[in-house]
Specification:
about 15% strand; transferase; nucleotidyltransferase; deaminated base DNA N-glycosylase activity; iron-sulfur; about 220 residues; single chain; alpha/beta; Uracil-DNA Glycosylase, subunit E
């Protein structure tokens, strides 16, 4: 079987690397060897999701950043600290959530004498190639609400026409990412990526908007 991405050809696809009938731990181990698109060549390692395997809320970001790439865990840099604080203020226990990214490898360009690694947004092809991993994470965890953190996550979950400025803070139906026809009762709420808070001139206002959107997530959870 030809495995997309290994030969640098047109076939970007992680599906040949995704094991059937795997649990979350086995899925994480398999993802460490994924060559489904060329991003694995420059990244330090695959950064798989982490958190509560029975989480009611799954948060999906864009891709790992420089700190996450080096440590092998999602959202452990400055944006992760912003997100943790915002979740707590919104009434969502971070320890009862699961967090991952639409793309599991760090995409970057190197700049300057020290060759500082600068984030570069993944392409639609790279997002599509990595979607089988995200689809399996969501299938195994079966959350009530999925949070799209930023435009890339929103497009991966809701389609290429998604716009975070237009659809943020609104519960939307989430179709299965694996192409299954059966509808689900999972909803998706989009908001900004927490890194947008760090880049903003008016951090307080942007952060308040993030917390407001996450309160919609808290309200969308079914009563236990």
């Amino acid at each position: 079987m030809e495995r997309g991405g290994e030969d640098g050809g047109a076939g970007y696809d992680a599906r040949p690397f995704v094991p059937a009938e795997a649990d979350l731990g086995e899925l994480r181990e398999a993802a460490a060897g994924c060559h489904g698109c060329p991003l694995y060549r420059e990244a330090t390692q695959t950064v798989f999701g982490a958190g509560n395997p029975s989480a009611r809320v799954v948060l999906v970001g864009e891709q790992p950043g420089d700190v996450e790439d080096r440590r092998g865990l999602p959202f452990v840099g400055p944006a992760g600290r912003v997100l943790t604080r915002a979740l707590e203020e919104a009434g969502i226990d971070p320890d009862d959530s699961y967090i991952t990214n639409a793309v599991k490898h760090f995409k970057f360009v190197q700049q300057g004498r020290g060759k500082r690694r600068i984030h570069k947004a993944p392409s639609l092809r790279e997002m599509a190639a990595c979607r089988p991993w995200l689809a399996e994470e969501l299938r195994l965890i079966a959350p009530e609400v999925v949070v799209a953190l930023g435009a890339t996550a929103g497009k991966s979950l809701l389609g290429p026409d998604f716009r975070v400025t237009r659809e943020r803070g609104t519960p939307l139906p989430l179709a299965p990412l694996d192409g299954a026809r059966e509808p689900t009762d999972v909803v998706c709420v989009a908001t900004i990526h927490p890194s947008a808070v760090l880049r903003a001139d008016d951090r307080d206002a942007v952060y308040a908007g993030l917390v407001s959107d996450l309160r919609v997530v808290a309200g969308a959870l079914r009563a236990p």
